[in-house]
Amino acid sequence: MAGKPKLHYSNARGKMESIRWLLAAAGVEFEEQFIEKKEDLEKLRNDGYLLFQQVPMVEIDGMKMVQTRAIASYIAGKYNLYGKDLKERAWIDMYVEGTKDLMDMIMPLPFQPAETKEKNLALIIERATTRYFPVYEKVLKDHGQDYLVGNKLSWADINLLEAILMVEECKPDILSAFPLLQAFKGRTSNIPTIKKFLQPGSQRKPPMDEKTVAIVKKIYGI
Amino acid sequence: MSGKPRLTYLNGRGRMESIRWLLAAAGVEFEEIFLETKEQYEKIIKDGSLMFQQVPLVEIDGMKMVQTRAILSYIAGKYNLYGKDLKERALIDMYVEGIIDLMQMILVFPFSPPEAKEKNLDSIKERATNRYFPVFEKVLKQHGQDFLVGNKFSWADVQLIEAILAVEEKVPAVLSGFPKLQAFKIRMSNMPTIKKFLQPGSPRKPPPDEHYVETVRKIFMK
């Protein structure tokens, strides 16, 4: 039997953070190998470890998995966070794609020049409050259950909590008009595995700082 | 039981084309509604049909599905094009995600400014030739089977044939270094459902032209 999953990425959130969330929520311990300089990435490429020459890469169950969605889907499926049938999976997929679109707007912010950043921040807040959060508020309101899909914790809930916390870092009172999401946030944050992940010393990564931005730029030559 | 799936999008490829390919390859007949004006688009947003106010929209099995990947995953799962177990699904997901990254470059190409077009075309050619096609050439070479995963036709094969043809439209000799992919292309093109889709009069859409680009700008941009 294979050991713990091993994550290959920079020591930063980026595209790997959603995978860290998912593994942590599922109660799965994992190891991390951080890419700190260009040579680390080159080595992974030269060793043939990266199917499309890119990270994230997660060694899991004898596979060297790449492509964030593929990895997350596999983990969700393996740890029963993907609904009970095809239709529940469809809803989970739709919800996850939405929160992903929102988080994808936030990810590039640290790399953008000041005025672009300001403009995009305003767009993120607009999208969060008028396009994305209303959807999840309504879902929770319509069925009155604790979780988004099938009355059971799924990838959709984990991804939504991650997105909420990320947007709150941009605007702390972003949930002011969304009482059910506030309750959802409180509830989901208290799930033991997630609570543990939210505590200092966990493998959760902080928002990007100047130093990390510089390291990442150097590794990828951007 | 509901009728045929109903697709709502522009009368062009865009993000809906992969869905048309997959349904067609699965032998599933579908209907299409084409958005031609901003008012039409605003109306379906107002109707609440679009979860995140975006198309593609596919009405299927009583659901108003949005988010391209969610839709594709559902169709693949429903029509047995998603492998036999979690691991095969993981491989299919990895391959599909890689191909989608390549297709994304083609998707945005018509919208790039004239001065950037030559550079972008070179990027498409470079990525197809050095990053993506070699992977699938190697997969086919290593197992010597007709299909990418599990010796059985899957979503990955459909996505790959779509990508090969799309790249060939821009870079006609792109498969010259890939004999296995050349054979794969012929084999897939001759599968009855795909062969039918490749014939004139099918729901397959032509490459984007000026009119399509104008329509996108008119409908989606402020």
UniProtKB/TrEMBL annotation, chain A:
Its EC number is 2.5.1.18. Keywords: Transferase. GO terms for biological process: glutathione metabolic process; xenobiotic metabolic process. InterPro entries: Glutathione-S-Trfase_C-like, Glutathione-S-Trfase_C_sf, Glutathione_S-Trfase, Glutathione_S-Trfase_N, GST_alpha, GST_C, GST_superfamily, Thioredoxin-like_sf. The keyword Transferase applies. It comes from the Eukaryota. Signal peptide: none annotated. One of its GO terms (molecular function) is glutathione transferase activity. CDD domains: GST_C_Alpha (cd03208), GST_N_Alpha (cd03077). It holds the Pfam family GST_C_3. The keyword Disulfide bond does not apply. It is an enzyme of class 2 (transferase). Belongs to the GST superfamily. Alpha family. This is glutathione transferase. It comes from Melopsittacus undulatus (Budgerigar).
TrEMBL record, chain B:
Coiled coil: none annotated. SUPFAM superfamilies: GST C-terminal domain-like (SSF47616), Thioredoxin-like (SSF52833). GO terms for biological process: glutathione metabolic process. Keywords: Transferase. It comes from the Eukaryota. Its EC number is 2.5.1.18. InterPro entries: Glutathione-S-Trfase_C-like (IPR010987), Glutathione-S-Trfase_C_sf (IPR036282), Glutathione_S-Trfase (IPR040079), Glutathione_S-Trfase_N (IPR004045), GST_alpha (IPR003080), GST_C (IPR004046), GST_superfamily (IPR050213), Thioredoxin-like_sf (IPR036249). It is an enzyme of class 2 (transferase). One of its GO terms (molecular function) is glutathione transferase activity. PANTHER family: GLUTATHIONE S-TRANSFERASE, GLUTATHIONE TRANSFERASE. Belongs to the GST superfamily. Alpha family. This is glutathione transferase. It comes from Melopsittacus undulatus (Budgerigar). The lineage of its organism: Eukaryota, Metazoa, Chordata, Craniata, Vertebrata.
